[in-house]
Fold this sequence. Notes:
Strand content: 5-15%
Low-confidence stretches: none
Mean pLDDT: 88
Distance between the termini: 38 Å
Order of helices and strands: HHHHHHHHHHHEHEHHEHEEHH
Number of helices: 17
Oligomer: single chain
Structural class: alpha/beta
Radius of gyration: 27 Å
Amino acid sequence: MLERVRRGENRLLWILPATSLIWANMHGGFVAGLGFIGLYGIGEFLNRKSYKKYFLILIPTVLITLINPYGIKYWEYIINALAMQRNTIAEWMPTALFGPFEEWQWFKVTLILSLISIIFSLIKSGFKYKNLDKVKYLLLMVSLYMAMKHVKHQPFFAIIAGSFLYYDFYGILSIIRDYIVLKVGYIADKVLKRAAIIKDIIIYSFVIIFGSLIILGTPLKINMPEYKYPMGAVEFIRQNNISGNLLAPFHWGSYLAWSLYPQCLIAIDGRYEEVYPEEIDKLTVNFDYVLDENWYEFINKYHTDILLLDKRLDSYGAILRTKFWKKIYDDKISAVFIPINDKRNSFIIPAQRNSAEEKYNTAINFLDLGAKQ
Length: 373
């Protein structure tokens, strides 16, 4: 839409405040949209074209986001969330560009093709500043910086690169095609035209056939990978009616809240800063990774009845070395502990369950939750 505004369709600008109102009430990522408007304004200013309209529409677009259940406090949360460190969350980690190629290979391929297209674009412009589209390069630079800083933002760079470098990339292919035709002659031209038709037939056939096989071969229910989620431990806690405050790693929190509420109350889950104080996050991270001598502080500060630990994290070995907890369940990836003074010694060991069914097991009644609110 912003590209259409650049082409003179200024009436479309008034869609932005309405869009921002809906977006802000659905997801905190609306600030990215505000950033886009600002970048377009800066880019058009550098292009010496009409730029004031972007900054003028930005005013109502920002102000309308105050229409939300929390008012100005929503913006306080957004600013705090933008500044938060998320060093233990995979999608917020930096992109390891120089690691093994198979890591983020799709992004690396996109980046290589983008760099080739950018070089072609610069050559085509004669490396003259005035011939460069500042909006294009500003968006590419900012989105690449964000993609390198956080894995989560890789798709944004891919979308922007695909949008703004499309004609540059195909310009390269056209030059290659013209060169072949020039060298080989008319026959090559006919061969290339037929090859293009064959290429289209192959691609569309592949998409239709492969897509159909995926649809027909995919079950309606989503499988739960046993190497990722503590399904056995959850079923053990359920069948033995072990209840209370449960401390578990952040990356399992949402699954456990979904699976064990109201039997167990989870220390932290994927709602993260939206629900939990920052102190809780710091204490649980310290516990999970045993960052310093205060790693046990969460348990000292908050009453904990159950530990469900990831055996791949440092907390598992640290708890085994203490004298305050006893292990009552153990599998390939997880272990369950209860306080050493708990007298229970006999437990039901659950049979292996169909992982396809697990995702839908919950005692949460959303109608009841809505009524209570």
